[in-house]
Amino acid sequence: MNRLRALLARLPALPIVPTVRAAWLVAGLAPVALLIASAAPGAWMIAPAAALALVVLVLLDGLAAGPCTRREVTAPADTEVGQPAMIEVHALLRAGAGRPEAALEFDPRLGLAGRAELQLAPGEEPGLFSGALELVPERRGTAPVTRLWLRWTGPLGLGARQVSQRLGSKIRIWPDLSPVRSKELQAFLRDERSGLIARRIRGEGTQFEALSEYEPGMDRRRIDWKASARHNHLYARENEAERNNQIVFAFDCGQAMCEPLDGLPRIDRAVSAALTCAYVALKGGDRTALFGFARRPQLMTPFVHDTRGFTRLQSAAAALDYESVEPNFTLALATLTARLQRRSLIVLFSDFTDPTAAQLMVESLSRLVRKHLVLFVTFADSELEAFIEEEPGDIATLARSVTADTLARQRSLVLQRLRRMGVDVIEAPWKAVGFELIDRYLAIRGSEAIG
What we know:
The chain has 13 helices and 20 strands. It has 3 domains: 13-174, Immunoglobulin-like; 178-195 and 243-446, von Willebrand factor, type A domain (Rossmann fold, 3-Layer(aba) Sandwich); 203-240, no CATH class. The chain is 38% helix and 29% strand. Helix 10 runs parallel beside helix 12 (395-420). The radius of gyration is 33 Å and the shape is elongated. It is an alpha/beta fold and 451 residues long. Strands 1, 3, 5, 6, 9 and 10 form a 6-stranded mixed beta sheet that branches. It has a 6-stranded mixed beta sheet with strand order 17-16-13-18-19-20, sandwiched between helices.
């Protein structure tokens, strides 16, 4: 009797739970118990006895499942937003354990609302079960993997053992640099004019490089008449493209830029495009910096001179926060102007939903464009285009299409106003923005419009 009491006292502490199969078995035996109670009321003891037997069977099956002698979760230390990251779960169980399942709790930045379940499959080692979970991070930052639940059944599948374990893994989510690693960009950087090693490009630009004897076929405008008069021979000027230009990539981290665009916030799409262009600019010998703002300025990095400092730009971009507030363009652009000591190319990534919200942005850019060259980058709104092109089958669809067309026209008016002010504008789908930005930067740099 004492042993039975000791066993019963330990039962609540045992991590054993009934399975779905046991629940279905109880549901199937309930009508049988009612039938026995109606046909033979004197045999009512059969139902509680059967229930007790089922409980004992569940406990014995759970005990037969055995303990989990080893369990671990492996997660990458770093990943990039929008790129798949694999988390693996390993458990060493007693031979004969069946249907092991795992559940993970993690930061919602990793997607799937912060929780996921997976099945574990047997591995090469006896009793070792493993499973992998693929996650696609939705936002930058540090995402902890906080807890693991593990459950496995006994041989009969009626009882299951379940354990929970706190985890200390953290995954750092960086900006997406897949465009920098793309074959197209690497092939461009290997071009004989750009090269992996920055070198002088003669024949272009306005910065004097050397004098050479004039030969037939050269542009006569390149003749240096003063030098030719001194030497009594025609000499032509050789210029090189100006280097050491300052390029600032400014990010609006406000509400509009936090809205998703094909699964990722617009600010993350902008950061990826900016870092790609910054990498090309550093290869070309220019200086780059990042500037982020929302309600107030968030960061302003020092200018980076070469590709060895590119990781500093990547780390600073990872620290850009998401803020669901309207951005303060007046304060942000005034702060940026005060920190720049020379004429620079300012690439501003922003978005707007109506002309009223864009009014302060336009006024602030009108003051900024007096001292600096400004390039405004925004993403084409594919959702508005889809609403406009949608077939008006009913009144609601027609009203949505008309509203979307009105917003698109207002957006176009704001962009036209920026162009009349002297602001260069890029509006393109997010997949094409990065390469269009590089083309526009190279065109501006080749025209010597920055310095």
